[in-house]
Specification:
Chain B: Keywords: ATP-binding, DNA damage, DNA repair, DNA-binding, Helicase, Hydrolase, Isomerase, Nucleotide-binding. The structure holds 2 protein chains of 2 kinds. Chain A is α/β, with parallel strands linked by helices. Chain A is 19% helix and 30% strand. Chain A has one domain (3-241). In chain A, the strands form 2 sheets. In chain A, strands 8, 9, 10, 11, 12, 13, 14, 15 and 16 form a 9-stranded mixed beta sheet that branches. Chain A has a 7-stranded mixed beta sheet with strand order 1-2-3-4-5-6-7, with no helix packed on it. Chain B is globular, with a radius of gyration of 28 Å. The chains are: A alpha/beta, B alpha/beta.
Chain lengths: 245, 834
């Protein structure tokens, strides 16, 4: 059985989240890589990079055209489990600005079905700076609800007011743990308690190791935690225990 | 043919050198003149290379001088070798006869290093003889000018053919040959080869195959071997180790041998062994003999210096891996020392052939087994050598990823007719069993990715025209092809740069710009944490950091590296040697030749347990330190054992036997767990025959492969060769790490959505043949069916000691990744509670 279908099976059961406070709000980290905010009945998903394969195909690299399907199926499974009233797509939902235009009809229909009866917010990202075409939902550069702010790219400052309660994506965090001479690398959530970076949700999206310089602009050196995605659970580690690539 | 029929110029030249043409050289001229392709099998020192070129030189001499102002005749002879260094070396060697006979023959080389203006010129004004590599042939054939370039090609010489045909490069070359034969009807091929097990395979490789069952064969000229080599197994006073590959125990004996010979060549199987032996030798090198190190990871400049010093005769010994196995003449080596197990009889013969390039004198070699099992293997190899037995692998079935690459190349040259191309490809022995359906799938893959979901028509690389011919959609496709040509996909490498340690001032940034020491596999570095030490280039290094595509290291202040090795045993034990070792174990009469220590060990095994039978499988079970062990002895090589171990633990798990892990080496496999396996087997609750049932290669294998990192690495190679993902080129790495899509993710998506995709089939074929040794495992399971002997023991048996000692040294498998993560996480929890 593929990893994908086993995920689907799991999500039809009651979702289990790892609850943590961010800027005073209790949010749940889910092993699919989405964020669940129970008080607001809101589901947050980052960096889906839909139509990534076809974006490569345009340049002559004919990657399997199944990434959009795989990503949407996984999203459907998660939606089924949480039944959110509001969905926030945290940017880079499409791999390029024309991605939503290329979206094959069956997937467009699938996405529209998921949107039915829900508030849907597209936060713009560097890959998709424009509103998606022929799809419902409101497009914003960033949006705040209560103490949490949702934007694609984290503000590159540490400790300032605007970073308090920031929920973002963009970096595709991944972490590596070493044990018994073997190392395991997984996508992960990364947080210092005041802000949170979501892992990339897309089927063809890789990860950037949290030991990379890029993270030193948003977290104090090694003073943050990660939650590695596993099957049915998350594995928490402090950054000091992680190794680079 | 009689030497008298040679043109005068040649007769005089031979005479001036005090030589007479050898019989096989004349035979080759004879066969070629009658239009016959020919395989020449000859030992080193038989004048093989000259024999290969003589027919062409004779023909070119008859053709006479080119008239001034008239364009050249195109290439007359192609010489193809697996190593570009070899092509350059041969060009030098050809110079002498060509100049001395004053032949109007232009000889040039063309390799990846040839400057582009020269390559351009070669296409316009080709030399008579072009010395090159399989990749360059592929490149030339993708050129629209290829038809003109090769129209007058008469001969193709394939050097080191035995080495070429065992890899995907051999597949690429087979496809190239099929095309060359079509461009130049009447083309003759010459194969030059060391002794092999099945000469007919190579003979078939050289010629066009008919569309029938019958196999067409090239003519064969065989030069019988020179003097019988003088091989012995090191007889050390020291205690023979139970396990391990270090040969450290014998280092003083080895040093003694070096001292008493002029130049010794020390062959080891892995780079880590090379590093270790080199370091140990220098530790006791009281006389500071010039001893050097040579392996593929070292900086090229350093390797060239060692080679030059060797050729100049200023070295007493070189410790080398297979990087020195082949080809080039290293001067007067009078002793080959093979450290560790020989792994194959033919491999050993070829290595020993490196010593002494004169045919009539025996080469001298000493085998140094690293442990007790290796003594048996050395003994088997020695017997094989005395009988002249060979165990080179059988001919491959052509790989599909290579075919994909070739098809794109052909389309770059000219519009491609599918049916004609299919027939052309099937005329090569390597691809003759390719069915039309598979061919179509591969073509479809090249054109649009070959997905069942037909969404890429608009992005097609190849388009079928109204005339039914396939053309590339854009000139850019040809550019892309040229950047990706070739079948060697290097493991991603990082440069190793020496910097000042930051161990003292922890926060200080790592200094920049030290000396470059060489390259190392990315996956090895990934396993290291800053501060870990390892052996590289003969010194102990401390890993500091990764910066872009470089690994920063500093000199460590210790002699004992923490990470013992960066590569396991590289070659699997050949089936032939494995069978010999099994036969030897089963026959106490044959133990006479073994050292006392080994004989005692086997006697003890006979007393305490039983001996493995020749055609059966011995399974021992015993308790030890609150765990229960099962050890079996298939002797099928590490790869097959690893696969079997993975499958057995899966099956044991399902049967409720709670296995915890396993470890494998070339000879045996040990599985352990918490349940009493002896009881489970002897009570009949878990019949051994069921455990080793052949159907284990079905679903269990499939389930495991889904997650296997071996499979993902194989997929990556296939995807690069087939042109699905682009090769990483030097200088591109900086962005490459983030921009390229991970092939692991592509594999997951493809496997989930189109498990029958042609690239997954190619990956499976590769894995089954190479990495997982599934065919060999299948043969094993068939062989031992109904012949499994189980012995329940109160404690570990003598034969099981070596494999148990490897637990902790070798990676232990069978633990799910999540379990490891969980344990790591729990450890932290406990730490936090303290």
């Amino acid at each position: 059985m593929s990893a994908l279908t086993s995920h689907l099976r799991n999500y039809t059961a009651a979702p289990v989240c790892h609850d943590i406070p961010i800027n005073g709000q209790l949010v749940g980290l889910h092993d699919s890589g989405v964020l669940w905010w129970p008080d607001e009945n809101t589901l947050v998903v980052a960096d889906m990079h839909l139509e990534k394969a076809s974006s490569y195909a345009r340049r002559g690299v004919l990657l399997p055209p199944y990434d959009t399907g795989a990503t949407l199926e996984k999203l459907a499974g998660v939606m089924d489990a949480f039944d959110p009233a509001r969905v926030i797509c945290l940017g880079d939902s499409f791999h390029d600005a024309k991605g939503s235009d290329r979206l094959p009809a069956p997937y467009r229909a699938m996405l529209s079905t998921l949107q039915l009866g829900r508030e849907w917010i597209w936060v713009t990202g560097n890959h998709d700076p424009v509103a998606p075409v022929r799809l419902c939902g409101e497009t914003v550069d960033e949006v705040s609800f209560g103490p949490l702010t949702f934007r694609h790219e984290p503000v590159e400052k540490i400790g300032s007011q605007e970073t308090q309660g920031e929920i973002c994506g963009h970096l595709h965090p991944a972490a590596r743990v070493r044990r018994f001479g073997r190392s395991i690398r997984r996508s992960c959530f990364a947080t210092d308690g005041t802000r949170l970076v979501l892992p990339a949700f897309g089927a063809l999206t890789g990860g950037l190791n949290v030991t990379d310089e890029a993270y030193s602009m948003i977290f104090r050196r090694r003073q943050f935690s990660v939650f590695l995605l596993g099957n049915d659970r998350l594995f928490p580690f402090t950054a000091s225990r992680l190794v680079g690539d | 043919m009689d030497a008298a029929h040679l043109p005068d110029r040649f007769q005089n030249w031979f005479a001036s050198r005090g030589w007479t043409p050898r019989a096989h050289q004349l035979q080759l001229i004879d066969h070629l003149s009658q239009g016959h392709s020919t395989l020449l099998i000859a030992p080193t020192g038989a004048g093989k290379t000259l024999a290969g070129f003589l027919p062409s030189l004779v023909e070119l001499e008859k053709r006479g001088k080119r008239k001034p102002g008239v364009a050249g005749n195109g290439i007359h002879t192609l010489y193809i070798s697996p190593l570009k260094a070899l092509a350059v070396d041969i060009a030098r060697n050809l110079e002498a006869p060509v100049t001395e006979m004053d032949l109007a023959v232009k000889v040039e080389t063309r390799t990846g290093d040839t400057p582009s203006h020269k390559r351009q010129r070669q296409k316009l004004n080709p030399p008579d003889i072009l010395l090159t590599t399989p990749e360059q042939i592929a490149l030339l054939l993708s050129d629209p000018a290829s038809a003109r370039l090769f129209a007058s090609l008469r001969t193709v010489i394939l050097d080191e053919l035995h080495a070429l045909v065992t890899s995907k490069r051999g597949d690429l070359l087979a496809l190239g040959l099929a095309r060359l034969r079509r461009l130049a009807p009447g083309l003759r091929t010459i194969g030059l080869s060391a002794t092999v097990a099945e000469p007919d395979d190579l003979r078939a490789y050289l010629v066009d195959q008919p569309d029938t069952e019958a196999r067409a064969l090239a003519h064969l000229v065989q030069v019988s071997g020179g003097a019988q080599p003088d091989i012995s197994i090191l007889d050390s006073e020291e205690r023979l180790p139970w396990s391990g590959h270090s040969s450290r125990y014998a280092i003083r004996d080895i040093y003694g041998l070096i001292k008493t010979h002029n130049v010794s060549l020390l062959f080891v199987n892995t780079r880590s062994q090379a590093e270790m032996v080199f370091q140990e030798l220098w530790r006791i090198n009281d006389e500071t003999l010039p001893i050097a190190l040579h392996h593929g990871s070292l900086d090229v400049g350093q390797r060239r210096r060692v080679e030059a010093a060797m050729a100049a005769g200023s070295l007493r010994a070189v410790v080398a891996t297979s990087s020195l196995d082949m080809g080039i003449d290293w001067g007067d080596i009078d002793l080959v020392i093979n450290i560790g197990a020989p792994k194959g009889a033919s491999r050993l013969a070829q290595r020993i052939g490196r010593a002494n390039h004169r045919m009539d004198e025996p080469s001298r070699a000493v085998l140094v087994p690293a442990n007790r099992f290796e003594v048996l293997e050395c003994q088997a190899a020695l017997s094989a050598s005395r009988r002249g037995e060979q165990d080179t692998p059988p001919l491959r079935n052509g790989a599909l990823d290579v075919l994909a690459q070739h098809l794109l190349g052909l389309a770059c040259a000219n519009p491609l007719d599918a049916l004609a191309t299919y027939e052309e490809i099937r005329s090569s022995q390597t691809y003759r069993y390719l069915d039309w359906e598979t061919f179509e799938k591969v073509l479809d893959f090249v054109a649009t990715g070959g997905y069942a979901l037909k969404t890429y028509e608009q992005y097609a690389k190849l388009r079928k025209g109204k005339d039914g011919l396939w053309r590339i959609a854009h000139p850019k496709i040809a550019q892309q092809y040229r950047l990706n040509v070739g079948t060697i996909v290097e493991a991603p490498m990082l440069k190793v740069r020496l910097v000042k340690s930051k161990a003292d001032g922890r926060r200080a940034p790592v200094g920049r710009g030290g000396r470059m020491l060489g390259e190392i596999e990315e996956y090895f570095i990934e396993q290291l944490a800053p501060g870990d030490t390892f052996l590289f280039g003969g010194e102990v290094l401390r890993f500091e950091a990764i910066r872009e595509s470089e690994a920063y290291v500093s000199r460590a202040k210790t002699d004992n590296p923490m990470i013992p090795s960066y590569m396991g045993g590289k070659f699997p034990l050949s089936t032939y040697l494995a069978a010999s070792v099994r036969a030897m174990l089963a026959d106490p009469e044959s133990w006479k030749e073994l050292p006392d220590q080994v004989r005692d060990w086997l006697e003890m095994q006979r007393e305490k347990s039983v001996l493995p039978r020749k055609d059966g499988l011995l399974v021992e079970t015993f308790p030890r330190a609150e765990k229960h062990y099962m050890v079996c002895y298939p002797f099928e090589g590490r790869l097959a054992h690893q696969t079997l171990g993975m499958l057995l633990t899966k099956r044991l798990e399902r049967l409720g036997a709670q296995p915890m892990g396993f470890v494998a080496n070339d000879y045996a496999l040990a599985v352990w767990g918490l349940r009493d396996l002896s009881l489970l087997f002897s009570s009949g609750r878990l019949p051994l025959d069921d455990l080793f049932e052949q159907d284990i290669l079905g679903d269990d294998l499939d389930a495991w492969l889904a997650e296997s990192s071996l499979m993902k690495r194989t997929f990556r190679n296939c995807a690069v060769i087939a042109g699905l993902i682009e090769r990483r080129h030097p200088g591109q790495e900086k962005t490459g790490r983030q921009v390229t899509v991970s092939s692991d993710l592509i594999y997951d998506v493809l496997r989930a959505h189109e498990p029958d995709h042609i690239l997954l089939k190619a990956t499976w074929n590769d894995a089954a043949e190479g990495l997982l040794d599934i065919s060999r495992l299948g043969e094993l399971l068939a062989r031992i069916k109904g012949r499994i002997t189980h012995t329940g023991l109160p404690h570990v048996s003598p034969l099981a000691v070596p494999i148990l000692l490897e637990i902790g040294k070798e990676p232990v498998y069978g633990e799910a990744m999540d379990t490891i993560l969980e344990e790591a996480a729990q450890e932290l929890v406990l730490e936090a509670l303290e």
